[in-house]
């Protein structure tokens, strides 16, 4: 098949969906691989490097020849309009926000897959772009916090006196949170973390951090968090009011799949924090965990900096692209194996393919999409 990897909108994303090593693996499988000119530049992969592996550097308009188009972010309408009938699009699709894209996929009989619908199962973890990217975001959040903080992180005993270890609190101990905890620990901070899912306590403790319990009768578990009751929210708030004044860095990562992120730090709770301390809000794209968060900005309230990156992955675009490309390769390998057995994509009986397929042959297949 003829595959194309498109350049992301460089104003918002420096990553690239296919890296040179993955392009080579696709070529070795017998595919022709096109990469849009300069697509890898922002992540540190030059056109020359792609060419070395047999990639053809292409113009964006070459999308019209492609059997498969890869991208990290949803395609622009004008790109979708150039795709041929039955072409396959594999990318994050923002499926609950991009009705126009989905209508167009349907109308133009394009097969589209949403990578954010990859299930949280063991078998799917090699393809899980949300996990691979969240892990790097968590790491980078801890590094950036250490960089911005006007104090050191580890305990330092010097002839001029002792520098105490900084205190870091991580709210939400999922993929990003656990990586933030591990990184802050490696940097020598004293780390505490909390989550609505009680089962993560063991994982937090195994990283050498303290699990901060919220005294509530409500418990939730499994891999999907839910919106908590008012009783839980009150208990969590009370706990945070006692813990926040001691923290130097707070990294928030709390999300509820498919919903707005919960607000767990209100303005008057920020006011309890020490001047000079920092909140890094990794949930800003889905609304933010702090009432003062402004996406893409650093806001200062009573000397507390509340930082919300537009796209923290731009600061680690090389590794983020490498992991994303590996995830895409695993997904595409599964898809092509299944297509050999079953030509009609909408009839493929595989839980990962079924979960991610949005549109096919002029129909909306995903039961999670309702355009009306
Ligand atoms: P996420 O990004 O949706 O949420 C981040 C964390 O925030 C979660 O741990 C969640 O419980 C927590 N949270 C939600 N509301 C909160 C609140 N009000 N206060 C405090 N914390 C709150 O989650 P994620 O990181 O993508 O993953 C969550 C779980 O799913 C993890 O245990 C992860 O290991 C698992 N997972 C498994 C796979 C797989 O097996 N393939 C893939 C992805 C995730």
List keywords for this structure.
17 strands, 2 domains, alpha/beta, Rossmann fold
Tell me what the structure shows.
The chain is α/β, with parallel strands linked by helices. The protein has 2 domains: 2-127 and 317-364, Rossmann fold (3-Layer(aba) Sandwich); 149-310, NAD(P)-binding Rossmann-like Domain (Rossmann fold). Helices cover 31% and strands 17% of the residues. The chain has 11 helices and 17 strands. The protein has helices at 20-28, 47-52, 77-80, 99-107, 129-148, 175-186, 201-206, 230-243, 267-270, 317-341, 351-356, and strands at residues 2-5, 32-36, 56-58, 68-70, 88-91, 111-114, 156-158, 161-163, 167-171, 190-194, 210-211, 249-252, 278-281, 298-301, 304-307, 357-360, 363-364. Strands 3-2-1-4-5-6-16-17 form an 8-stranded mixed β-sheet, with helices on both faces. Strands 11-10-9-12-13-15-14 form a 7-stranded mixed β-sheet. The chain has a two-stranded antiparallel sheet with strand order 7-8. A hairpin with a 2-residue loop joins strand 14 and strand 15. Helix 5 (129-148) runs antiparallel to helix 10 (317-341). The protein is globular, with a radius of gyration of 22 Å. The mean pLDDT is 96. The structure holds nicotinamide-adenine-dinucleotide. Residues 120-122, 124-125, 128, 130-131, 134, 171-177, 194-197, 223, 225, 228, 253-257, 262, 264 line the site of nicotinamide-adenine-dinucleotide (NAD).
